[in-house]
Amino acid sequence: MFPSVALLSLSFLAIAYGQQVGTLTAETHPKLSVSQCSTGGSCQTLQRSVVLDSNWRWLHETSGSTNCYTGNTWDATICPDPVTCAENCAVDGADYSGTYGITTSGNALTLKFVTNGPYSTNIGSRVYLLSDDDENYEMFSLKNQEFTFDVDMSQLPCGLNGALYFVEMDQDGGMSRFPNNKAGSKYGTGYCDTQCPHDIKFINGEANILNWTSSANDPNAGSGQYGTCCNEMDVWEANSNGAAVTPHVCSVQGQTRCEGTDCGDGDERYDGICDKDGCDFNSWRMGDQTFLGSGLTVDTSSKFTVVTQFMTSDNTTSGTLSEIRRLYVQNGQVIANSKTTIPGMDSFDSITDDFCNAQKTAFGDTNSFEKLGGLPTMGEAFDQGMVLVMSVWDDHEANMLWLDSDYPTDANPSSPGVSRGPCATSSGVPATVESQSPGATVVFSNLKFGPIGSTYAS
């Protein structure tokens, strides 16, 4: 995620994140089939499921139904300190469709933006792909491989983000490393990313209640003393007006709790252990404003296929990650990625370290991506295995302008790198998006992975 506050901006009601397991609501994971392909294009269907992130779940006292967290405030009696809170509070099962607007059908996952449930109104969601045991996250190692999916984001307007990405979470959600975590992957624990988000309720098996501050502009969010960091590969952050593919890297391996300067908050953005900006390829930002959008070359008014290839220096799964390629398939036609048309840059159509360095120079951006190791570091994260994440969210801090409009708003829109999409700088205000587009949805389907060239028909 691009902005410093992207993961703080997930807005939702009745959120909770616990380490004990509640029994008041049954947890049944929605089934989702995916395909593993082999050279030549033969694909095997795998029966998998998705699990809701624990940050959304009902968090209540283990001995009853009293909330441990309401709105954006902790119950100080139940949660006097981080460890006691983890012992006293249970995260419960989820009504995926009724409360959260999450449904699956065969190989398709639909995420609805606003869901009016029986007890609350839910905004956005985040789910992870589980392995065949329905207890652990599916782990992906994608070097010299490609990952492909279909997406329908025709009902996703300015200000929203339907995201598909990978993060370096623990396979079991942190249960083995942190004994206070009794819920694990089955209940969606252990989230991390390169923004080192502080809004996660439990980190390392302890409640993140120290110095907890309620959000000034989101009645259901807040932030604690700690953040949770790890490498992140944003394969797809998009709405019907724009899209970006962005690797982000860290100086640490695996989910890591941070505090202070290491988190890279505010003015210390470039002093932390993770690269928050990443190295993004957004066709509009890179100079082609006719490539992706409604009625354009990649027509976002209807479904299309996104193919992302992770090339290595020696074309083996053990080689060094050296290039991330993108292509699209729509209406039976393979569409090559757009090319950069930025003054001072060569004509790039993929992400390489040379592209990233040239982009940072052309845009005048700080090159923390190179400082923290660039694509080879991203490849090392895949060596460890990464978890697939799919989400829909709005942005309470930057109104998603970093994805689909001019950002920063006080910069000259004609300066290279500032214009990122066609949306107005007044768009994306969460209250407006939530009231005007409650029925917004994103549909991810036909997920496939395998050797280069195996997941789509050329």
UniProtKB/TrEMBL annotation:
The first-level EC class reads hydrolase
Signal peptide residues on this chain, from the entry's feature table: 1-18
Which region ranges are annotated with the description Disordered?
Answer: 411-434
| Documented EC number(s) | 3.2.1.-
Alphabetic keyword roster:
Carbohydrate metabolism, Cellulose degradation, Glycosidase, Hydrolase, Polysaccharide degradation, Signal
Record's compositionally biased regions (Polar residues):
424-434
One annotated GO molecular function is:
cellulose 1,4-beta-cellobiosidase activity
* Superkingdom of origin: Eukaryota
Which GO biological process entries does UniProt record here?
cellulose catabolic process
Report the catalytic activity: Hydrolysis of (1->4)-beta-D-glucosidic linkages in cellulose and cellotetraose, releasing cellobiose from the non-reducing ends of the chains
The family assignment reads: Belongs to the glycosyl hydrolase 7 (cellulase C) family.
Q: What is this protein called?
A: Glucanase
Protein source organism: Ganoderma sinense ZZ0214-1
